[in-house]
Design a protein that fits this description.
single chain; alpha/beta; 4-stranded parallel beta sheet; globular
Length: 551
């Protein structure tokens, strides 16, 4: 009898393939931009050769490897959770170029039995020599990062020396011409030449501010006239302020002094230290100025006077920053109005209306305008309504066999939030223990350990505080909410005589906010004026209805 295939060779049970996370990073440095498709193909081929399977992909596109504030932390967490056995990268340099970050996060993988594998660098990290090779690969990656940083520094110094802005690119009010080489070998340097139309607008803006006009008013004027920024979007007050303060139209290049005594940059933060420092110097630029020197000086004096002007340290109205635009969900700011009285006398009304900040600054939302008195009356009416409902519900509680059943949505929401915060506290404790282990084994320098320890301590404090606030939040059961009734009654009865700060603090404990809805036309054709809806803490905040009227 001829044996069957199964009788000859026996049944074969397929070996399970180890799960790995494929990680792709594309650098911000143009010489180091490796196509994501190239990296993905190489990782897939490595997985096929070595009997692995890529269960998920994590990508950081156009991201620097000098810090670990990237999505790679998601991949590391998946390995720690047991979702995968390790992370596969195109080259070790894709994982990171930070000496501190590489040591800490590689240790996180190894402590959970995870591995970091390179698809194009044949290294056996299970041996001492393989780990040496991996360490050398990381050292070369760090060297390349430092070299790139030095090149960028030299480039910035060279550009400043030639009177050019360090970052290049478009500047509003100017026509930017790139550096180019003609076919006949003639080199045309990079230049900024005034735009005839926008140049006059820029000069007008400086003169407006120098004459005392508010920056917000100038920003609104740009929006009404349809002028867009170099990014093709409406101007916002912060962006306009930053541009005018730079002094570029006045012929200057603003930069940060190299010998500044401000704190050094955090190695795990991609933000340059200059962005966190208020010290600036203005150097002569090569661009032709479009703002006269006397106008620039008058503008600076006006800006300095505005910075020294006393400002209110607390809101003047109880609902300030508590009113939300129902269209976009953004905050509504308080604004004034005016009217003409007898004899044409102008009467100004301060704090008359709440208006959408997004509409006010950039017109990206159709916005909402609701009178302050309407919003306050809606709050007082709702406080009375809630107090009556809570008292009526609390009166029925003694007749029940047990305590009132908790609201399912509220209870589950609180439980999820508490679980998340508790898990994060456990993770922080684990990370603290890991850091102690790393420094005790001389795997990371002591200064790196101190920075990481302090960061974890701050995060632990913030998480603990957030957990405590969650426990105190007024997302309570009806029987617990009964304790709020005296607060509501007292706030309604003594609204006018209660200090603004006290009213605000009490309201913040009672409501998420006050959602302002625009005027609308009902099915019967009757126009309904703008109205406000207070939302209590024990209810879910409403979803935005849409930024535009047709939404």
């Amino acid at each position: 009898m001829t044996p069957t295939h199964d009788q000859t060779k026996g049944s074969r049970i397929p070996t399970p393939r180890e799960p790995f996370i494929g990680y792709i990073r594309v650098s911000t440095y143009y010489e180091d931009k490796i196509s994501p498709d190239i990296q993905r193909t190489a990782i897939k081929q490595w997985a096929d050769r070595n009997g692995k399977t890529i269960v998920d992909w994590v990508e950081d596109l156009d991201m620097s490897g000098r810090n670990f504030k990237r999505r790679v932390m998601t991949a590391i967490k998946m390995v720690e959770d047991g979702t995968a056995r390790g992370i596969a990268v195109w080259r070790y340099s894709r994982f990171g170029r930070s000496r501190h970050g590489n040591a800490v996060n590689l240790a996180r993988l190894e402590q959970r039995g995870g591995r970091l594998e390179s698809a194009t660098e044949a290294v056996d990290t299970s041996t001492a020599f393989g780990r040496l090779q991996q360490g050398l690969a990381f050292k070369f990656a760090e060297f390349e990062s430092d070299r790139i940083g030095e090149q960028w520094k030299e480039t910035r110094e060279n550009r400043i020396g030639r009177g050019l802005p360090t970052t290049g690119g478009q500047r509003w009010g100017y026509v930017w011409t790139r550096r180019r080489l003609d076919d006949d070998g003639t080199l045309h340097p990079e230049s900024y030449n005034p735009d005839e139309t926008l140049g006059k607008i820029v000069t007008d803006l400086y003169e407006r501010i120098a004459d005392g006009e508010a920056m917000n008013s100038a920003c609104q004027w740009l929006g009404r006239e349809g002028y867009l920024s170099t990014r093709g979007v409406p101007w916002k007050q912060t962006g306009l302020t930053r541009y005018l303060d730079s002094g570029f139209p006045a012929g200057f290049i603003r930069t940060h002094p190299e010998d500044c005594d401000c704190p050094p940059a955090d190695p795990d933060d991609s933000t340059h230290r200059a962005a966190k420092c208020t010290k600036r110097i203005w150097l002569p630029g090569s661009q032709e100025l479009i703002v006269p020197e006397d106008v620039w000086e008058a503008y600076q004096k006006q800006r300095q006077a505005a910075a020294r002007a006393p400002r209110s340290q607390s809101p003047n109205y109880a609902l300030s920053w508590l009113v939300k635009c129902a269209r976009c969900g953004g905050t509504c700011s308080i604004g004034g109005s005016s009217t003409r009285g007898a004899g044409g006398v102008l009467i100004r009304k301060t704090g008359y209306v709440f208006r959408c900040s997004e509409h006010k600054e950039s017109a990206t939302c159709d916005g909402v305008y609701v009178r302050r008195t309407v919003a306050e009356e809606a709050v007082l009416d709702k406080l009375t309504e809630w107090a009556d409902a809570i008292e009526a519900e609390a009166a029925r509680i003694p007749q029940q066999a047990g305590p009132a059943a908790p609201d399912a949505d509220t209870s589950s929401r609180i439980d999820r939030a508490r679980k998340r915060l508790t898990e994060r506290l456990a993770e922080i404790q684990t990370e603290q223990d890991r850091q102690t282990s790393l420094v005790s084994r001389d795997l990371i320098p002591e200064d790196s350990y101190i920075r990481e320890r302090d960061r974890l301590a701050r995060e632990q404090l913030d998480t603990t505080r957030e957990l405590a606030e969650l426990d105190e939040r007024q997302e309570q059961e009806p029987s617990d909410r009964a304790a709020l009734v005296p607060v509501m009654r007292g706030l309604v009865e003594r609204w006018e005589i209660t200090p603004v700060a006290t009213r605000r603090n009490m309201l913040r404990e009672l409501i998420h906010g006050v959602w302002a809805y625009p005027k609308s036309v009902g099915p019967d054709g009757v126009e309904r004026p703008a109205y406000a809806v207070p939302v209590p803490r024990w209810e879910q905040a409403p979803e935005p209805i849409g930024r535009r009227a047709q939404a």
